[in-house]
Amino acid sequence: MPSNDARILLQAAVPTAAVGAIAAVVSAVVAGGEGAIGAAVGTLIVILFMGIGLYVLQRTAKSLPHLFQAMGLMLFAAQILLLFIFLAAFKHTTLFNPKAFAFTLLAGTIVWTAAQTRAHMKAKILYVEPEKSGHSS
Questions:
Q1: 98-122 vs 3-31: helix crossing angle, rounded to 10
Q2: If you count Cβ atoms within 10 Å of the first and of the last residue's Cβ in the chain, which end, N or C, has fewer?
Q3: Confidence (pTM)
């Protein structure tokens, strides 16, 4: 993974994990151990889904740059749809607190999206590849 991609991944994952840790503590206080487990699972799912999405998007940008924007929109819509499917699938679970799970999914997704947007805006990524030096035409 190129350094820009790894830096963007790190700048999005760290704040999301921090919010997940805070959510786990708050959920543990409010809902007990099941709340903490729900928040931890929610955080893990957000980081996993969004991290895979970022990886796929970066690969698409390198191999099919003309599809980058459309792929980004489609990928984000697919990620949100998958998160809603997880919410529906675990709505009545007894393994963990579903409300803590749902609120952590929501908070994690918002934080990941904001942090990734900020990381992209601050990254010094070239829009045009410079010509190779040493080649004469």
A1: 150
A2: C
A3: 0.80
Instruction: Assign 26 to helix, strand or coil.
Output: helix
The larger pLDDT score, comparing residue 64 to residue 22, is at 22
6-78-20 Cα angle (round to 5)? 55
CB-CB neighbours of 112 under 10 Å: 24
> What's the rounded Cα separation, in Å, for the pair 6 and 120?
12
Each residue's pLDDT tens digit, 63-83 = 888 888 888 889 889 988 988
CA 23 to CA 26: how far, in whole Å?
Answer: 5
C-alpha atoms less than 13 angstroms from C-alpha of 60 in its C-beta half-sphere: 16
- In angstroms, how far is CA 72 from the centroid of its own chain? 13
Q: How far apart are CA 57 and CA 39, in angstroms?
A: 27
